[in-house]
Amino acid sequence: MGCTRTSYVCLPCRASYKQAYDTGTEVRRCPRCAGALLHAGSAFAAPPRRDAAAWRTLTLLLNAGIRFHKGCCGGPGYRPRTRHEVRERTLYARRSGEPLERALLHREVPWERTTTR
What is the DSSP track for 42-57? Predict the structure, then answer.
């Protein structure tokens, strides 16, 4: 039986580590700072460490509960790549009442439903 590997991320260190996935409750620790690692998913690709804007966006996504898991077609689907895209979808979620976790996954923001108020 093969070992499934997935990505874990340390946001303060801007580092990603592929590790074996298990469902235990053990807290994974960053080898650099000993802080807790967040599970990012098996389809996660870390931005370059020097790309502070990409890491800020990633922090917003991971803290909102968005993960990068492989879907049935080989990828995790749409994820916002900039803070502007995150802000747009956050505003949409507030105005529409849609949960933030779902609103962040819209490729296009369906504004027409919220502008008639």
Answer: TT--PPPTT-HHHHHH
